[in-house]
Amino acid sequence: IEAGAHRRMDRIIVVTADRETQITRLQKRNGFSRPEAVRRIRSQMPLPDKLSYADYVLDGMQPIGRLRSAVRSIYADLQRQSKGTAGRLTRHASGPIYHKTRAARHAKPYS
Prior knowledge:
Blueprint: E1 13-16, H1 19-30, H2 34-43, H3 47-51, E2 56-59, H4 64-82, E3 97-99
Parallel strand pairs: 1-2
Antiparallel strand pairs: 2-3
Helix pairs in contact: 1-2
């Protein structure tokens, strides 16, 4: 989003996680020290701003099984949209997924 690539995308998916989880994941995945991970996070657009661009938001703090299920739901929704039979996903009581319509893309992020 920061570099403007979102303008070339039909849909935007944002995965959220608390700050400590973000730091831990960057340390593990990228081999960053804690200060490097913190600097990387601080250099990025704040999460509330990213959420304002999202068509879908996944709660990255959920167990992997629930996330996989949510990703499958998003994938199925995107397939329906590509065929012109889009369903509208809403917050699922049992899962970590949200859907925002394109018209709401720049509305206030979910709280």
